[in-house]
């Protein structure tokens, strides 16, 4: 199985892990990272600094671009992190531009909960962050919509959270 994920010269990493460290106490993500590495899958995860405070760096941007697959681990408070939102924005750009594969994981939450957190609680908080204008907030909403759509969650009504659509 690991041979399916061997890096092509173009890819520095097989997997980029996007997550909010504060929500995991590093256990879940550390175990996932170790298991991926154990079976020969080269993964990138940031160093666990507070994602609420860490800037979106050139290193992280490059790691996303140089990864064949991105796994976003959505947790209930994922959207409070500007770093996480910038990472998912870059990931969705790479999905479009480089045909990067994207796999969302909803860890102890549902898309509707993540959506509600963003739509109602943190929208105003993002406006308090320097540089977080309404255009950026709309971009984050669009990116989250796209990510949720990949797994079959769509926003049916603009005043309601995301709902699972069965095809």
Task: Pick out its properties.
alpha/beta, single chain, 5 helices, Rossmann fold, TIR_dom, NAD, Toll_tir_struct_dom_sf, globular, 4-stranded parallel beta sheet, 167 residues, TIR domain-containing protein
Provide an overview of this structure:
The chain has 167 residues and is of the alpha/beta class. The protein has a single domain, classed as Toll/interleukin-1 receptor homology (TIR) domain (Rossmann fold), CATH 3.40.50. Helices cover 43% and strands 16% of the residues. The chain has five helices and six strands; from the N terminus they run E-H-E-H-E-H-E-H-H-E-E. The strands form two sheets. A four-stranded parallel sheet has the order 2-1-3-4, with helices on both faces. Strands 5-6 form a two-stranded antiparallel sheet. Strand 3 (67-74), helix 3 (82-98) and strand 4 form a beta-alpha-beta unit. Helix 3 (82-98) packs across helix 5 (134-150) and helix 4 runs antiparallel to helix 5.
Q: Can you identify the CATH class?
A: Alpha Beta
Q: Quick one: CATH superfamily?
A: Toll/interleukin-1 receptor homology (TIR) domain
| Largest sheet, spatial ordering of strands | 2-1-3-4
Total of domains: 1
Describe the largest sheet.
Answer: 4 strands, parallel
N to C succession of SSEs: EHEHEHEHHEE
Which value, in Å, is the CA radius of gyration? Answer: 16 Å
Helix share, percent: 40-55%
- Shape estimate: globular
Number of strands: 6
What fraction of residues sit in β-strands? Answer: 15-25%
Instruction: State the end-to-end distance.
Output: 29 Å
Structural class: alpha/beta
Low-confidence stretches: 1-8, 158-167
The CATH topology comes to Rossmann fold
Quickly give the CATH architecture: 3-Layer(aba) Sandwich
Total count of helical runs of at least 4 residues: 5
